[in-house]
Amino acid sequence: MKRVSNEKVFDDIKIKDEFLPFLEVEDMVGGKKLIIDHPFNGRVEVDFYDVLPEIRFIETKSHHESSDSNYQDLFFFNNPNLVIMNCIIKGTCQVPVGDDKYVFLKDGDMNIFHIQESYKTLNYGEDTHILFIILRRSYGSSLKLKDPLNISRTINDLFGIVYRHSNLIYYNNRQIKEILEQIVNFQPAVSNTKTTYQLIKFLELMIHVYNFDIPEENLKQHTYTDSQIRVVRKIKNMISRNISSYDSVESLSQQYGINSTTLKACFKEMYGKPIYSWYRSYKFQRAKELIKNTDYTISKVANMIGYKNSSKFSKAFKEQFGVLPSAYRKKKKK
């Protein structure tokens, strides 16, 4: 492992300055591994593979406990003539699709778009695994005379498609999801075959991209502004800090100055559940942790998450986890 500056790591990718002190890089066959182990924000691993001079795979894995950890805009693409494919293997992430316009993608989703200026990457969720496929338009001219697989035409055609639609989103397409999982799960017996496998899978992926019609609703996906997302994140933080009480959506929207419909839709996009469902799940998970890791009485734990009656809490706990809280504690202490 070695610590390096931005200039010594990548040509058209810049790491956000605040993460450089925690950046370590090691060489791998066909690429580099980047690790950022931040004392407060958790750990992110990024593998870079140059499959061909104009095709780069970037696989990122983030491990941190909160979606509010500050691994936002981790790195930037400095080359404006790129097509970027964001492939979500696991988790949820916030992806820019225009001027102050963002969408949220989840497991199995893929977003393809062309950047025309410096592009900041997505914001990570709590535990995410993402594959970027970065394509450079210059590929066609560099291998014009030695391209038996017609890869240059494939890439140029993709640029043409993205130019027409600006932003393409494939929501949880089964065939595409299978290919992405094969790419990230491949463990070669011979290390130098990995990039060859990645190239084959890239071509297979392109076949599906060209042959699947994009549903009209995918081209008109709902977007959110940065200010709306920040407000929803504040609301989520407030709810998680005050699990003993719950405010209605109408009350929250008035307190934070956000339309209630936007609040409900954006919250579900960001955290995968409606607000109350998320709150209920979160507070019972917290109760579970308290029962397991502390000596608080069941009655005290019930009170901490908003139940004045421990019997009602025990009943609700069993509905949630299939076991009474007392039995759960006894089982965990064996």
From TrEMBL:
The lineage of its organism: Archaea, Methanobacteriati, Methanobacteriota, Methanomada group, Methanobacteria. SMART domains: HTH_ARAC. PROSITE patterns: HTH_ARAC_FAMILY_2. Keywords: DNA-binding, Transcription, Transcription regulation. Residues 233-331 form the HTH araC/xylS-type domain. This is Regulatory protein PchR. The keyword tRNA-binding does not apply. One of its GO terms (molecular function) is DNA-binding transcription factor activity. InterPro entries: Homeodomain-like_sf (IPR009057), HTH_AraC (IPR018060), PchR_regulatory_protein (IPR053142), Tscrpt_reg_AraC-type_HTH (IPR020449). The keyword DNA-binding applies. The gene is pchR. Pfam families: HTH_18.
